[in-house]
């Protein structure tokens, strides 16, 4: 058993931490409140190779694994910049294309993931299907060599910033019964693709959208893997990277909140000479949150290590557990930090209440805590499936 990062991973952690701190939470919040995007941070991280750490070197990437990408997600979040697009683009989309794309799709897309110049967002959720992906109603039908895609998607993050959307659909002849997904790379400027912004109670420069696909015409090579049989394994390939990186973001956010709070409570004095952090009523909840965050962090390391060793099934169990634990720990840490700061906790200036919406959403998306508990009950505890 080894709990140490390699020297290269340590260097990556330090370098990403330094970059994140240079931008910081006030940059993130200012972009969110002015309707902007974190373009400068994304582009700089891309130039420095941090967004492509998990892309193979032959395509210009860092040749690392999910461990490296999780480090990038955690450290940017720990600096107050939790970037959701890291989860959808380099974690989900790049992995799907790397593992299940055709040679031509790898050559075409992976270099853009390697330097961050390409953003591909991910669209699976639908209004009438929700957590039940077997009910997906977005349909792809053949028209000569082309495909025509029609359907609706909801809560899709970052469409306005991306060049492509990776759309999960089903073919016309597989319109009922168990999902046989087909994944398509849809350019965001394709005719027939439109979107409208959802008003969300989350302070973030990354937004969610309703997506409308009305007979979007796509060439044959838009189908990931070039074959309908590639759909299901391609969809599954994205799940572990998604769970693990979103968990890393949660842990980073939890660390950020605890750091803000402990800086404050160590120096704030309202009862004579001792800091409020000397009072166990203030310090213990923070210590409890720190324990939860660190436990989630351990599970992320285990999940990423298993994934990078090619042990996908075990990584799936640990990745789900890590995502659950990190979602709970992040929500606890931010809420506890707000309380420890008192009134200052609710101000924009102290930069913790600004994360309340994001960490609350982290218990719902990209997979809800209940669906993870269903997975654990079924696959770890051997219980009958209820749905
Ligand atoms: C900030 C944010 C960003 C998102 N970004 C994306 C994105 O980029 N791309 C994308 O495709 N989607 C995205 N989503 C959607 C997200 O993945 C879904 O919201 C999530 O999967 C839950 O689906 P739902 O909202 O339809 O909830 P529903 O499926 O309607 O569920 C509602 C509630 O019921 C519970 N529930 C449902 N079924 C069961 C069951 N069998 N057992 C126990 N409990 C159950 C759920 O856990 C949940 O609490 C995003 C959502 C948010 C909030």
TrEMBL record:
Residues 6-116 form the Acyl-CoA dehydrogenase/oxidase N-terminal domain. Keywords: FAD, Flavoprotein, Oxidoreductase. InterPro entries: Acyl-CoA_dehydrogenase (IPR050741), Acyl-CoA_Oxase/DH_mid-dom (IPR006091), Acyl-CoA_Oxase/DH_mid-dom_sf (IPR046373), AcylCo_DH-like_C (IPR036250), AcylCo_DH/oxidase_C (IPR009075), AcylCoA_DH/ox_N (IPR013786), AcylCoA_DH/ox_N_sf (IPR037069), AcylCoA_DH/oxidase_NM_dom_sf (IPR009100). Signal peptide: none annotated. This is Acyl-CoA/acyl-ACP dehydrogenase. Residues 230-380 form the Acyl-CoA dehydrogenase/oxidase C-terminal domain. SUPFAM superfamilies: Acyl-CoA dehydrogenase C-terminal domain-like, Acyl-CoA dehydrogenase NM domain-like. Transmembrane segments: none annotated. Gene3D superfamilies: Acyl-CoA dehydrogenase/oxidase, N-terminal domain (1.10.540.10), Butyryl-CoA Dehydrogenase, subunit A, domain 2 (2.40.110.10), Butyryl-CoA Dehydrogenase, subunit A, domain 3 (1.20.140.10). It comes from the Bacteria. It holds the Pfam family Acyl-CoA_dh_M.
